[in-house]
Fold this protein.
Amino acid sequence: MRYSRFFIPTLREVPAEAEVVSHKLMLRAGMIKKLASGIYSYLPLGLMVIRKVEDVVRRCMNEAGAIELLMPSVQPAELWKESGRWNYYGKELLRIKDRHDRDFCYGPTHEEVITDIVRSYISSYKNLPINLYQIQNKFRDEVRPRFGLMRGREFSMKDAYSFDMDDAGANLSYEKMYKAYCAVFEACGLKYKVVEADSGAIGGSFSHEFMVLAETGEDFVISCDSCDYSANLEKAICVNDHKKSGEELLPSEDVATPKAKTVEEVAAFLGMPAEKIVKTMIVRVDEKLVGIMVRGDHEMNEAKVKNYFNASVVELASHAEIEEATGGPLGYSGPVGIKVPVYGDYAVAAMANYCVGANLRETHTININHGRDFEFADVDDFRNANPGDTCCKCGGKYVITKGIEVGHIFKLGTKYSASMNATYLDKEGKRQPFIMGCYGIGVTRVAASAIEQNHDEKGIVWPVQLAPFKAVVTPLSVKEEDVVKNAEAIYNILNNMGLEPLLDDRDERAGVKFNDAELIGIPVRITVGKKTLERGCVEVTVRKTGVTEEVPVAECAHRVKDLLAELS
Ligand SMILES: O=C(C[C@@H]1CCCCN1)Cn1cnc2cc(Cl)c(F)cc2c1=O
Ligand SMILES: [Mg+2]
């Protein structure tokens, strides 16, 4: 491709709204342009990278025996009413009406559509298992789209769905996808980690997320410093290894705590450590109000609360609900004498003589003890794991890192096949619901996370596998006949070798050409200039290391090929 005839609108500056490096660099490198909040056009360079991610995904999915199809992005409400999800989702589901005033949505995912397809055609166990996938745009009306393609509202996803006759088969399908995902992210040149993930309250299911480790990741990953245990913070198990307090129970006492609201302020005011203050979170679990008590230095984990109660919705109670449940205002809730059942995190169950809200404005009660002053309805693991906590698998220590979720695979079970009556005839001629799995990869998010993991102060440093062009041939002048002739010749040889070169034939100063090549992240640059040609050489520079070497013109193409092979 010739630069002068291509379209790479690089920018010197980026809009202040771009916070993370992949967003900044995709704008500056002329890869994307925002159309609306969370909605982007993929400009030619960006599309080339996305197509490369798709090619890797397609190759690995096909090798795993999955079969590609393509479903519409607009979906009829009827299917979502069958699965019971039409009224479950809120504003995140973009609902639209057609000219006949019929309800549709812009598909955020395709479980309903694929289940409808399979139930229409597959009726015998002889046609199972089957894994169907697509690469299709999704729309999720995020309340706060940000970070460019990392959290867009319209984005490209590869989503696959497996259908098996039984649990054993479904586990094999899951295993196949797990391995295929590892192959995808390795082939994309990404450093990733597989973590156990929360799969919501779908019974009999489990899920794993594939995380690209990066500081700008929005997900927290808990890993053990001694074994391979790794889980999304939503899921990471907290071991109940708290030593039971042997303290003698002291008499409880209300204490005025004027102006002290937060745990830190109350702890400071009362002169005790934060872990002696116990928070009572009043939450609405589906339609029920409950109190969840966690230690002052811990955070309540909503996913764990949701799974404990097998609930669909868990939300912090409103001011009014708190008044109703506790008789006191927000911020001073405590377990004593309230109308709702109280559940305790394991850490609290090991404590004695702790401080709680008195359900009175600016008042706390010290030396409270469960068993004497109130009863727990139950105790369980309701908190976020912290760095330094004991590993649930080996007793080692947890560490916390941040990750970008680029893949998520789920064992679904019969959640959709049961609700949509999608069944097959088993060997005994009995109707059985399919056992399903679903598997997603954020295609556009993979491109963005590759930049998060591979960049420097000059710009993008593409992994060779995803680079829009593998090499750029840069003539220092387009007026010197000898320079142009050699540059064209090298470009043609690289092209014929399938090395996808770019020829920077613009009439621009060398500095501009070098800066653009570094910004858009081309792995290898071949610089053709009068000086080196006098010695029959050109310069070859590796973007990742900045190392430049002089290479005889005749050996240049093969040297580039070898360098690209080393970099892959
Ligand atoms: O999408 C999944 C599960 C898997 C992920 C891999 C590919 C197949 N689906 C979970 N999920 C996430 N956000 C959603 C947002 C909306 Cl608005 C919705 F209506 C439904 C969903 C929804 O179901
Ligand atoms: Mg996910």
